[in-house]
Amino acid sequence: MKSLLIILSIFISLISPTLASDHVEQAAGKGKVIVVYSGQCPSDVKEEAIIKIKELIAYEAENSPIPFPSSPGIWSNGSLGAVDLHNSIESMKKVFRWQETNPKWSKLYSSITSMCGIEDFDINTLEVQ
Fold first, then answer.
1. What gap in Å lies between CA 105 and CA 86, rounded to an integer?
2. Nearest 5°: phi and psi at 51?
3. What is the C-alpha separation between 75 and 114, in angstroms, rounded?
4. Per-residue DSSP letter, 65
5. Whether 125 contacts 34, CB under 8 Å
6. What are the residue ranges of helices labelled H in the chain?
7. How far apart are CA 74 and CA 72, in angstroms?
8. What is the pTM of this model?
9. CATH number of the domain that 42 lies in?
């Protein structure tokens, strides 16, 4: 949780015109939504889980009704996750609805959470102001 707060404070400092100097470019424009996923996963399956996350992202890239960039990785506290960037709250919600109703997406996601022994990833969103 501490690393998530650090990441969010970095994003805020990058995107807030009152906190950032004039020469710093915003990480995301106003109205965009950054979605942060994180979850613990045993080290003996971490590499396999990252491969599965990349597979899930590739499936989203080819099948999501609204395209969005997503990057997988390992957080500084050792948890796995990804960061997505959506154009708006509305587009994020449409993608979430698609994910909830898409059997293949659900199967891929469940295989990752099951492999890691977690019920769900922690999900936090940041709407850029």
1. 18
2. -60, -45
3. 19
4. S
5. yes
6. 2-15, 46-63, 89-101, 103-116
7. 7
8. 0.76
9. 3.30.70.100
Q: Is 8 part of a structural domain of the chain?
A: yes
Q: What is the pLDDT of residue 118?
A: 96
Long-range contacts of 70-74 (CB under 8 A, 24+ apart): 74/46, 74/50
Give the count of domains, the chain: 1
**pLDDT above 80: residue 19:** no
Q: What mean pLDDT is predicted for residues 54-83? A: 95
81 CB burial (10 A radius; 0-12, 13-18, 19+):
buried
Asked, for residue 20, whether it belongs to a domain, the answer is: no
**Structural domain boundaries enclosing 121:** 2-15+28-127
More confident residue, 23 or 98: 98
On whether residue 22 sits in a domain, the answer given is no
Give domain status of residue 23, yes or no. no
* Interatomic CA distance for residues 14 and 66, integer angstroms: 26
